Amino acid sequence: MGELQTLTVMGLPIHWGAHYEDWLLMRHQQGLGAHVVTLNAEMAMQADQHPELKAVLCQADLAIPDGAGIVLYFRLKGQRIQRCPGIELAESLLQKLTPEHSAFFLGAAPGVAEAAAQNWRSRQPGLNIVGVRDGYFQSDDLPELEAELKALQPTVILVALGVPRQEFWIAERRSLCPQAIWIGVGGSFDIWAGNKERAPAFFCNNNLEWLYRLYQEPWRWRRMLALPKFAIRALTY
């Protein structure tokens, strides 16, 4: 694929283009690897308040427009881009992996990553998932986990530790697997494991997936306050 177009929102990069998964696999083949950030309004607001997180997001090799707020911001600026949910990018990437490639699932509650991996093994029998770890490891477990990643050198490492923990975790350990494609996937494992459902197509296609998530998890209302705050902050940045 061609070069990605780099846009900015609140000082954070957004890379816009088609076929992100092809671009990522090309980087892997070139031995470069990548840290992928799935940017949404909530993450942008966190970065606005925490310079350390902003620095990590700015250093990412690929930042995709995951959230509806990001897409709507650019539309107000006259730039039409399409939303690219992180879960869809991860799925497209896994589907393109050959038997020579491999994947590692890391994060979520005990049993969830394994259930997600089993789902993928059923859907795609040729997919080579070389490791699965839940996200409830302790600091004493880190040397073993890091050694495992270093020994396996997976092609794709999906990290579901929540924002911003997963972004910091990836940035601090990229050197363990420099050719890997590292992606923070948030709650994707729960969906693949069958514990949660994605919004129906109508909500996804109309940038209303956040509304369906609020319906499913009313306790998220405080986090959803980031949307109007983001709108005001982004337009006056």
Automatic annotation (TrEMBL):
UniProt xrefs under InterPro entries: WecG_TagA_CpsF
One GO MF term attached to the UniProt entry: hexosyltransferase activity
Pfam families listed in its UniProt record: Glyco_tran_WecG
Keywords, ordered alphabetically: Glycosyltransferase, Transferase
PANTHER family referenced in this protein's UniProt entry, alphabetically: PTHR34136, UDP-N-ACETYL-D-MANNOSAMINURONIC ACID TRANSFERASE (PTHR34136:SF1)
Protein name: Glycosyltransferase
